[in-house]
Design a protein that fits this description.
The chain is built from 6 helices and no strands. By secondary structure, it is an all-alpha fold. Keywords: Membrane, Transmembrane, Transmembrane helix.
Length: 108
């Protein structure tokens, strides 16, 4: 007998969860692409002019440190599908509740 609810791969809840996960990852990839593009432009523009680099050296270093932190944190904090399963309230209930949900769905 196949389980239902979050454990059913074809349920509406899991389908919506997968769509949300995909959209969240697309947004993160877009943000990372923009940040990478800005970092490349900063590197190219700042190293072309020797005097500009000497004047704003501290500002350049601090900016790159912040961009590097943002870049590395975005990968470590990217949403994972397992995290969404962990926070769903029906998983924290007893297994009897899952059986009752299966019986209700089978009866309707």
């Amino acid at each position: 007998k196949r389980p239902c609810g979050l454990w059913d791969d074809f349920s509406i809840l899991v389908e919506q969860l997968i769509y949300f996960h995909d959209h969240a990852l697309i947004i993160i990839v877009i943000i990372l692409a923009v940040v990478t593009y800005i970092m490349i432009i900063l590197i190219i523009n700042d190293f072309n002019n020797r005097f500009k680099r000497e004047i704003r050296l501290l500002n350049i270093i601090l900016t790159r440190i912040q961009l590097t932190r943002t870049f590395s944190l975005s990968f470590s904090l990217s949403p994972k599908i397992e995290h969404f399963y962990i926070i769903h309230p029906s998983i924290h209930n007893s297994s009897n509740n899952i059986i009752i949900q299966c019986v209700r769905r089978a009866g309707s």
